[in-house]
Amino acid sequence: MRPQELGLIGYLNGVMRRYKWHVVGTTLILAALLFSACRKDNGPRTTPIYTEYTYPASIKASFPKPKQKEEKDKDKKEEVKGLPNLDFNIDNRAMRVWNKIPLPYQSKFDSLDLTIAVTSEAVVKIINETTQKVTVYASNRRAQRIDATGGKLKLTVEIEKKPTLTYDLRILTYGYDPDKFTWTKESASLPIAAEDAKVLKYQNRIFWVASLSDDSSKLYEYDLSNSTFTEVEGADIPVDLLPSSIVTDGKKQVWAISKDQKLYSSKDLKSWQAHDLGSVKVSQMIGEATTIDGKSNLLVIGYKEGSNLYQTYTITSSGAEPQGDLPKGFPVKEAYVYSYSQDGITAITLYSGLRADNKPSTKSYFLSGSLQWGETPYQKEKKVLPNSGGLFLPTGKEAELFVIGGLYGEANQPSSESKRSSDKGITWIALPNQTTVGGDLLPRHSASGIASGSDKALNIYLLGGIINGEPSQEIWHGHLDTTGGIINSFN
User: What domains are there in the chain, each with its CATH number?
Assistant: First the structure.
C-alpha cells in the first residue's frame, strides 16, 4: 500500500477512536445527570436505624437544665437543682408507658428531652393531651424536646402496612412527700428486752422471734393493730439461735444459724432440726436461689473448720457443697439479704455486713441466675449504709427499701437516721423531715420491725434495738401519709 493510503487510514482510525470515546463520555454524562435527577426527586438516601424495633424498645427522658438564680447583693449565683432523669416502663399489652420512679413531690416542668429506641422507618408522634401540641419524633436525633405540660401524653408509632400503635404515656409525680414520716412512741412495750430479734410473716401470721441475754429465745405472735404479743406455748428454740438470720424457702420451711455457726431448720417455728454439715461452719444465711436452669438451691456463706477461706455453699441432703470463692471485700456475716424474683429467677443482693477480717464491707454484692457473686454496679464511692445492725425493710412496693439505725463509721456509732431507696438499693437518700411524738427516736442498732403499707398509708413498726449499749423494749410507729397519691397514675 502506498504511503499516502496508509496515512489516510491512520487518520480515519484516529477519528473513529475519538468519536468512540466522545460517545462513551456523552453516555456517562447523561447517566450521571439521570442519576442525579433521581436522587433529587427521591431525596438523600439514608440507612434505616433500629429496623428491628417496630415497637419502642426503650424510652428515656431528661429535663432541660435549669438556669441559675441571681442572688441580690452577692457575687455568686444560687445553684438550682434540676429534676432527675427518667427511665420508662413499656407495657405493650396495656399500651401504657410510665416512669419507673415518680418525680419528687411538687416537681414542676413543662418540657423534657425524649429519647426513643424505635425504627427510623416509623413515624412517631407525641401528642400532649393538655395543650394538644403534636411533636414528630426524629429517630436520627439523640433526643427530641417535647411539650410535657400536665404530664399526660399520647405516643403513636406508624409504620407502612402495619397497624398504628397508640400508647398512653404518663409522667408520674409524688402527690405527697415520700420522705416525711411521723414517728410516735407507743404506750405499749415489748414483752422482753431482746439482744437479737426478727419479725417475720409466716403461714399468714406475724411472729416475733427474740433471744435474751442468756442466749435462750422466745416465740410470740404479734398483732400490729394493737401492739400486743402472745407467747407461743411449746416453742423449743435452740440455744444460741440468731433470730436475725432466719430466712424462709419456697416450701415454707425456715432456716437459721446459731452463734456457734451451726445450721437449723423448722417447719413451724416451734421445733427445730440441726443439720450435720461436717467441717463446714456457716457464717451467713443467704436463702433460696433459683438459677437460670430452673434449679432451686439453698445458699449459705461459710468456711471449713481450720481454714479462713470463705465460700458460697449449697445445702444438700448430704451436707454442704462449695460453689466457688467470694469476691474481694465480700460480707461474710451480719449482712442484710434482699431477695426478689425477676422473670422466674431469684435475684439476691447483700447490703452492709462484715468481711472475713471483721471490717465493714464497703460495697454491695449480687447474684442473679447463677451461683457466682458480682459487685453491684453504679455504687457510690462513699459508703452510705451502716456497717452492720441496720434494720432493712422492704415495703412491698416495687424496688423500695428502708434502712433504720445501725452502726456507722470507724467508731461503730449507733444512729437514728432513716434512709430510703427506690431502685432496689442502688441509691439511698436520708429522710430529713421526720417528726416525733412521745419523745426522741434515739440512736440504736440491731432493732427488728416490719413495714405495712396500703394505697393510703405506709406504716413502719420499729421494735426495740440496742440503745446506749442495752436492749430496749420501746415500740415506735412510723407513719407516712400517702393520701396525695401518685399524680397521673393510671389507677
Answer: 58-66+81-174 (2.60.40), 182-487 (2.120.10.80)
Q: Which of 139, 174, 4, 1 is nearest to 58 (CA)?
A: 139
Q: Which 8-state DSSP code applies to residue 244?
A: G
| pTM score over 0.70 | yes
Residue 137 vs residues 88, 133, 145, 157, 343: alpha-carbon distances, Å: 17, 13, 9, 10, 32
CB within 8 Å of 202: residues ≥ 6 apart: 248, 252, 254, 269
Q: Give Cα separations from 47 to 121, 143, 157, 207 (angstroms).
A: 10, 19, 19, 63
And the C-alpha cell for 288?
A: 433460696
What integer pLDDT is reported at residue 36 of this predicted model?
45
The answer for residues whose C-beta is within 8 angstroms of residue 358's C-beta and 6 or more apart is: none
The CB density around residue 353, as the number of other CB atoms within 10 Å, is 24
The residue ranges of DSSP E strands in 37-151, in sequence order, are 58-62, 69-70, 77-78, 86-91, 96-99, 111-117, 123-128, 134-137, 144-147
Q: Report the pLDDT averaged over residues 107-112.
A: 95
Cα dihedral across residues 424, 429, 433, 436: positive or negative: positive
**Which alpha helices (DSSP H) does 149-277 contain, by range?**
none
Instruction: Determine the distance from the C-alpha atom of residue 122 to the mean position of all C-alpha atoms in its chain, rounded to a whole number.
Output: 32
Give residue 433's pLDDT. 63
* 108 residue type, one letter: K
Query: Strands 407-408, 96-99: parallel, antiparallel or unpaired by DSSP?
Result: unpaired
Tell me the three-class secondary structure of 172-207, residue by residue. Answer: CEECCCCCCCEEEECCCCCCCCCCEEEEEEECCEEE
User: Which has the closest alpha carbon to 404: 391, 395, 386?
Assistant: 391
Place of cell 456517562: 28
Q: Are 451 and 459 in contact (CB under 8 A)?
A: yes
Q: Under a CB-based contact definition with an 8 Å cutoff, are residues 82 and 69 in contact?
A: no
Which residue, among 361, 365, 399, has the nearest Cα to 383 in the 3D structure?
Answer: 361
- Burial code (b: 16+ CB inside 10 Å, e: under 16) for 32-42 equals eeeeeeeeeee
Cα–Cα dist 86/364, whole Å: 24
Residue 404 scores a pLDDT above 90: yes
Q: 13: part of which helix (H) or strand (E)?
A: helix 3-42
Residues 6+ away with beta carbon under 8 Å from 20: none
Give me the residues paired with residue 336 across strands.
Answer: 351
